Amino acid sequence: MTNMPKTLPIKDQFFLPDGMIYLDGNSLGPLPKGTTAQLTQMVEDEWGDHLITGWNKDGWMDQPARVGNMVAGLIGAPAGSVTMGDTLSVKVYQALSAALKMRPDRRVILSDNGNFPSDLYMAQGLVQQLGQGYELRVVDPEDVASAIDDTIAVAMITQVDYRTGRMHDMDTVTKAAHAAGAVMLWDLAHSAGAVPVDLTASNCEFAVGCTYKYLNGGPGAPAFIYARDDVAKAMQPALAGWLGHDAPFAFEPDYRPAPGIARMRVGTPPVMQMTALEHALGVWDGVDMQDLRAASIHLSELFIEKVEASCPDLTLVSPRDSAVRGSQVSFAFAEGYAAMQALIAHNVIGDFRAPDIMRFGFTPLYLDDDDVLQAVDVLTKVMRDRLWDNPMYKARNKVT
Ligand SMILES: *Cc1c(COP(=O)(O)O)cnc(C)c1O
Question: Does this model's pTM top 0.90?
Fold first, then answer.
């Protein structure tokens, strides 16, 4: 452990395949070196040798709180305010239902149409389940602050738009919510590990996010959930699982919530995933989030400048102003799917979001100027020589 700021990038701490330029860490972060050894140790020594005693001996039961504290450090939250588990969709549901219970005389969940569909689907499912006039109101992202009035129970907003990278100002939106008496729930899926976040300063009630994107926890890594201290002490969990009980091993017939954020735990934690994540979070030790942000803006600006100069058929759909852009850059192109497939075939990995968006993530932990310039060279070739115009690149895969 060291508090000396690390100089970015720290590529040597990641396994990156030779010759690959990976611009998709916003969707799935790469494998940190050492994660494999850590997992092997957990499987062989802990699971293998210790079996059931691992829950105590190896600290598996406390892992969601321990890892939660590591995440808390990256999002400006105090120790003890974050717990881990389940998927982000589940954590959205839990936060949203607890938020609605805090405003029993209000019926409206406000979100925006730049939100990730699963967040909207979870809200729709919850509204249906509750009945009683509950509704989800979805507005344009620019209209969020002005749409918050005294009918809104909770504003459920994802800070960074997964398609365009457009970024909400947490302070403005949270203040608008609180001025109208609404509860504020932030989804930090594309913020945690990408931009500096100060949850304590924001004063929001709830925040959630995932850890397989910028936090490099691996496919299926558990999500996080945060609640402000006063909220955590009073909130009523909709998913009242035994590990969110005050005394799980008392096996009482009736639910009594654990103190604080631990009541948002549900069932048995995924220890292997949690172990991979715990190791991956160690990589951040000594990384200054302001340095990371500066590097992210630099890489993004370089990419935008070079692509606009050499690929006239691509249209920037991310905000040009870096102050309102997360850590990704997106370009629209009618044949974007095929163009992305051609890029991937040439070992430059980004992804595609319907209907026409080519998305590139800039992750300063393991990317530098050279990577950006090489990626632009390949993209320029794909566009100039119409490499995308090949049936091979046009057949859609299940995951785009
Ligand atoms: C990535 C993402 C999700 C994914 O949810 P999972 O349940 O982890 O699959 C949800 N919401 C947002 C805003 C995301 O960016």
Answer: yes
